[in-house]
Amino acid sequence: MGHIYLGALPRTYRWKEVIELLKSGADLNDLADASFFAAHSGLQRVPNDAGFLSTVNSIFELAAAAREKDVSGALENAGIPREHQSTSFDVLVAVSNKVTDDLKHTADRSDIGQMARDSFVESLTRQVQTETGSLFQAGSQDIKKLTQPFRGKQFKVLMHEFYSAFISRFLSYHLSREIPNHVGPDSRFADMAEHAEFNRAFDLHCRQTVRISDEFTPGWVGKAAFENDISRESVKKYAHVAFKKIASEFERGGK
Fold this sequence. Notes:
Elements: H1 13-24, H2 28-38, H3 40-45, H4 50-66, H5 71-77, H6 88-104, H7 111-132, H8 143-146, H9 152-178, H10 192-209, H11 216-226, H12 232-251
Helix pairs in contact: 1-2, 4-5, 4-6, 4-7, 4-12, 6-7, 7-9, 9-10
């Protein structure tokens, strides 16, 4: 992905603090939190980003469809043709195509939107593989099983994975430009193995921090679906609340 829309590497005091923490071998929590604040101005733009809102809107449309009695019909109305509802793989491909097509129709294309799209597809694929054991498991007689990630506890897991992947991608966008400068003898990371271990730990910290949205999101979607109010404007209001909660959690140090 060509990072061409988010701008140059920040030159703020906050970003300098991240670099100093890298040099000093700081605790992961401190580094992740400092990274968040360094990218804070960018994250503030996320709830207003057309591409991000498009992806979240698509997720919520699919979640609402999965709650309907005629799931196949509702999915078709949401942009998932019936002929693509026979296996987990078919559903994943159709969902990916829907999100990508919706993204293409946004007024302003951005890396934030692409990050959101990739985070969702990655999270959904991982959850389906975990639950079914095979992306090619036949299930044309049980479309509800194939769409289980969009309902109940599984939906909470899906959204947690989505936000975790997105936040990790966003922060890594900045960190990936600087971390290679700290790999080698007498550096923060002695070798690429230590670098990889850092990435895994950093991802875990992001996952633990975004848990603040776990209870809020399913309840909001259920209410919006019941009131038939899953619109771009309502999703935008939701996104502002969700990111306010996530930002507050980072500010509290994820504790």
